[in-house]
Amino acid sequence: MIKNDNEMNDTLKTIFNLRSIRNYSEKRISKEDLNLIIRASVRAANASGRQSYSIIVIDDKQLLKKYFYSANKGLLFCVDFNRIIDAAKYLNHTFASNNIRFFITGTTDTILAAQTATIAAKSLFIDSLFTNSIHREEIDIVYDDFNLPKEFCFPLIALCLGYPFKEPKYLKGRLTGLGVVHHNRYHRLSEEELENLIQEYDEEENHIGLSWENWKEMGFGHYLDWFYTRWSREIPSEKLKEFHLMLEKSGFIDPEWYYRK
Ligand SMILES: Cc1cc2nc3c(=O)[nH]c(=O)nc-3n(C[C@H](O)[C@H](O)[C@H](O)COP(=O)(O)O)c2cc1C
User: Fold this and answer.
1) Does the Cβ of 20 fall within 6 Å of ligand 1?
2) For strand 73-80 and strand 153-162, is the pairing parallel, antiparallel, or unpaired?
3) Atom 12, ligand 1: residue with shortest CA distance
4) Ligand 1 atom nearest residue 133's Cα
5) Which structural domains are found in the chain, ordered by start?
6) Is 27 in contact with 72 (CB distance < 8 Å)?
């Protein structure tokens, strides 16, 4: 039993030292390390042994610059059923992945693999950053840039990998208590508990939340005042429409399905 943080084993130390790095040095990730990261990534649990994802390994400088913060390597994690569908066709079977449940399950497979990659990387002293840069670009362009199949494949998350240009000053904190962890039944926060939550964000040394701008200097009373008014801007409806259309085109989500049944 581990009684205090000093007694953590190496696995826990690796997980507790995860941090996002946005500026990478020129140092290269070795082929052997990259290979290990990918082998570890696919060890993650996956529904029905389907591994319903594809991992695109990126070392093209232009793509790294455009989507991966110019990291040394990038991994694009896509929920993807094409390999499974093609194998079925080849054997004269059918495999229908045109439903939202497969999309959600496939998404879970994909994200578990992605997070496992970050832990494996960190254990090899390689840092990372998850980014949804791919969802900021026009989605059709993303499909073209990576030559993704238009059906039953959706790019979920980009993972940047590399060595830091400069060590960050601190590790970001996390909420760990009420409102995050619930016991047996969901507990909605009371006003008093919300007040504590707001304070928890405000406490500088907790380093919870984003630190892009100094909200105090900007005249905000609370971090969350800055967050809700300056950061969490509404996504333009055109952008959302593009997203909906691409999900429909991908075949996972059919908005008419419910009415036809
Ligand atoms: C789905 C997802 C998307 C993210 N996208 C970005 C991004 O586009 N740019 C960025 O700088 N950080 C991005 N991040 C990183 C978070 O900002 C970061 O994980 C968070 O601030 C906590 O910091 P830490 O990872 O250093 O503990 C993303 C993280 C996730 C999980």
Assistant:
1) yes
2) antiparallel
3) 131
4) 8
5) 9-168 (3.40.109.10)
6) yes
* Model pLDDT for residues 69-124, shown as the tens digit of each residue: 999 999 999 999 999 999 999 999 999 888 889 999 999 999 999 999 999 999 99
Q: Which atom of ligand 1 is nearest to the CA of 210?
A: 21
Cα(25) to ligand 1 centroid in Å equals 19
DSSP sequence for 52-110: -EEEEEE--HHHHHHHSTT-SEEEEEEEE-HHHHHHHHHTT------SHHHHHHHHHHH
Q: How confident is the model at residue 261 (pLDDT cuts 50, 70, 90)?
A: low
Instruction: Please give the backbone phi and psi of residue 9, each rounded to the nearest 5 degrees, phi first.
Output: -80, 175
Q: Mutate which of 67, 79, 128, 131 to test ligand 1's pocket (most atoms within 8 Å of Cβ)?
A: 131
Beta carbons of 55 and 77 less than 8 angstroms apart: yes
Q: How far is CA 105 from CA 38, 79, 99, 122, 157, in A?
A: 20, 9, 10, 26, 15
Q: Is 133 in the pocket of ligand 1 (CB under 6 A)?
A: yes
Answer whether 157 contacts ligand 1 (Cβ < 6 A): yes
Q: How far is the CA of 84 from the centre of ligand 1 (A)?
A: 31
Q: Within 13 Å and on the Cβ side, how many CA atoms surround 260?
A: 4
Question: In the structure, how many helices (H) and strands (E) does the chain have?
Answer: 10, 4
Atom of ligand 1 nearest to the CA of 172: 27
* Atom 13 of ligand 1, residue of closest alpha carbon: 131
CA 108 from chain center: how many Å? 11
Give the global pTM. 0.95
Split at pLDDT 50, 70, 90, the class of 240 is confident
